[in-house]
Design goal:
The chain is α/β, with parallel strands linked by helices. It is built from 9 helices and 8 strands. A 5-stranded parallel sheet has the order 5-4-6-7-8, with helices on both faces.
């Protein structure tokens, strides 16, 4: 790994990518979404502290021990109902990013993961998630076919909040789908602020239902 002659505690995005074992674009996404704190030099180059990279490595190591199954329950839930979230993504780096960020919110959420539409349907049958977060371009059964399959089973689809995170353009989604109007569509790279707002709404909906007589 290349080291800065001026300060060995500071890494470039490329150095950070090598240390983390991910693509350069993944580090750029983590920086853009606040997962990995960074700053810009006078020349416009991003710099990342070595300590921040080591901390992220430790967090990733803990998360990877449980992927692609169910992640440990988040702290701070008390006796309140917990939101069951299923994340469907075939790219391991994207999956790690989503899970790490969602875990950092410290909300009462239990996360389960799947790598394709077929596995997602199995997971849904096992845990009946309250919220489904999925990519559309998936191997085997893609997100379009998976969502269409869910629509035929009212007890799943009617109660589930569905969020799509995709790099597809709206015209291509319409051509290949279209998706139901109730599905939330987020473009990649995902706005985690918008995603967190959707999660909060899903939590409120679930807790209201639990409190109803």
């Amino acid at each position: 790994m290349r080291k800065s002659a001026a300060n060995e505690d500071v890494l470039s995005t490329r150095d950070a990518a090598e240390r983390l074992g991910v693509a350069l674009r993944t580090v750029q996404l983590w920086v853009e979404n606040g997962v990995l704190p960074a700053w810009k030099t006078v020349g416009g180059h991003r710099r990342i502290s070595r300590l921040a990279v080591e901390q992220l490595l430790a967090e990733r190591s803990a998360a990877l021990q449980t992927l692609p199954g169910e992640l440990p329950p988040l702290a701070g839930a008390g006796g309140k109902p917990r939101l069951k979230l299923l994340v469907v993504e075939d790219d391991p780096d994207e999956m790690r990013l989503l899970c790490l960020v969602i875990q950092s919110w410290s909300l009462p959420i239990d996360i389960t993961t799947a790598a394709n539409g077929f596995e997602a349907l199995l997971r849904i049958g096992e845990c009946c998630p309250d919220l489904l977060l999925t990519d559309l371009n998936l191997p085997g059964m893609d997100g379009f076919r998976m969502i269409e399959s869910l629509r035929s089973v009212d007890q799943w689809y009617g109660q589930m909040t569905i969020v799509v995170v995709t790099a597809l353009q709206p015209d291509e989604i319409c051509r290949r789908g279209p998706l139901p109007a109730s599905v939330h569509v987020q473009s990649k790279p995902v706005s985690f602020g918008s995603l967190q707002a959707i999660v909060h709404l899903a939590l409120a909906k679930m807790q209201d239902a639990a409190a109803a007589p």
